[in-house]
């Protein structure tokens, strides 16, 4: 079940904590920046292929995204399954274009030629976390 008020909180932010599953079953938490895709109810995250979150999601695609609101009593957690696009291996390939879209949302217009080569050199990829379930609190004001 997806709660629309919680989805609005997630869609209105760009910073969160991504939880993936380590090989031993414990959670691995990472502060991340994300771009919200309202058409697919997905958070798009840029990372490198050697990061724990990428390796964990290739092994087990289940993940959760925690996003805090304006105060302690406002937060949302989005559970879902992530797909991995990349890593980019050729300047301008599908993963590179996806990365350009994500990075442009944060940093504005980028020089594609320089950007694409940097992404290949850094072995970057995009994680797409499609939200299947949400939970949390969306109180406008703290209680009391």
SS-derived structural category: alpha+beta
Q: What is the strand content?
A: 35-45%
Segments where pLDDT lies below 50 for 5+ residues?
A: none
Helix content: 25-40%
CATH topology of the domain at 4-85 and 124-136: Pnp Oxidase, Chain A
> Between the first and last Cα atoms, what is the distance in angstroms?
29 Å
CATH level 1 name of the domain at 4-85 and 124-136: Mainly Beta
CATH architecture of the domain at 4-85 and 124-136: Roll
Major sheet details: 7 strands, antiparallel
Number of strands: 7
Mean pLDDT over the residues:
95
Computed over alpha carbons, the radius of gyration is 16 Å
Structure overview:
With 144 residues, this protein is of the alpha+beta class. The chain has a domain at 4-85 and 124-136: Roll (Pnp Oxidase, Chain A), CATH 2.30.110. The protein is 28% helix and 40% strand. It has helices at residues 4-11, 52-59, 94-107, 112-121; strands spanning 15-21, 27-33, 35-37, 42-48, 62-68, 74-85, 124-138. It has a seven-stranded antiparallel β-sheet. A hairpin with a 5-residue loop joins strand 1 (15-21) and strand 2. The longest helix has 14 residues, at 94-107. The chain is globular. The two termini are 29 Å apart. The relative contact order is 0.25.
Concise account of the structure shown:
With 144 residues, the chain is of the alpha+beta class. The protein contains 4 helices and 7 strands.
């Amino acid at each position: 079940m997806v709660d629309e008020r919680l989805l609005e909180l997630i869609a209105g932010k760009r910073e969160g904590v991504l939880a993936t599953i380590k090989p031993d079953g414990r959670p691995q938490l990472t502060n991340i920046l994300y771009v919200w895709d309202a058409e697919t109810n997905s958070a798009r995250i840029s990372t490198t292929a050697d990061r724990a979150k990428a390796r964990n999601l290739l092994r087990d695609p289940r993940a959760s995204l925690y996003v805090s609101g304006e105060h302690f009593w406002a937060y949302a957690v989005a559970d879902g399954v992530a797909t991995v696009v990349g890593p980019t291996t050729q300047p301008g390939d599908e993963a590179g274009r996806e990365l350009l879209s994500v990075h442009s949302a944060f940093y504005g217009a980028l020089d594609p030629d320089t950007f694409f080569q940097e992404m290949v050199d850094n072995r970057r990829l995009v994680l797409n976390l499609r939200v299947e379930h949400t939970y949390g609190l969306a109180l406008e004001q703290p209680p009391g």
